């Protein structure tokens, strides 16, 4: 391993990324956990990860996504840092860069972002963080049918995994398929009683 190149690690979904910093890895774990629990600390966790290792493409990409809606210049700076690290990045980090560049980059385009998230999840179907992001894109643009397609695409690879059934229940509820939404949500709660999307769908 070249000096400064960083160690290949796996995130909580099993995707490979590269960082030289244990603090960066810990902050990324916190960011994922906070995001899935709708915690207020998710943004600061993403920024801590990027600060701990500015050469970690995964960390700077998540930081770009966090600041993007409010600070386009900041998002551009984080994306530039990620781009500078792509030569030593993993395949997952490169795929995520393509998806997030369409979402928060200078030439942001929602349709392209949706298409690239479909591509990303075809290649990395166990990446539930990107599934959550894709569903939020669909929610903001009023496309519950597409949100459901995202979950259905990855569900065969994620049977009985934490959070996935809450993410299945949400678009079913939006589409008025109440009975199916409740079944999915209750399955999610059987796996994790603190799954907030599952809780929402049985309220």
Automatic annotation (TrEMBL):
Keywords: Repeat, TPR repeat
Record InterPro entries: TPR-like_helical_dom_sf, TTC38
Gene3D superfamilies: Tetratricopeptide repeat domain
Keyword match ATP-binding: no
Top-level taxon of the source organism: Eukaryota
Entry keyword Endoplasmic reticulum: no
Family as reported in the entry's similarity comment: Belongs to the TTC38 family.
Protein name: Tetratricopeptide repeat protein 38
Organism: Hordeum vulgare subsp. vulgare (Domesticated barley)
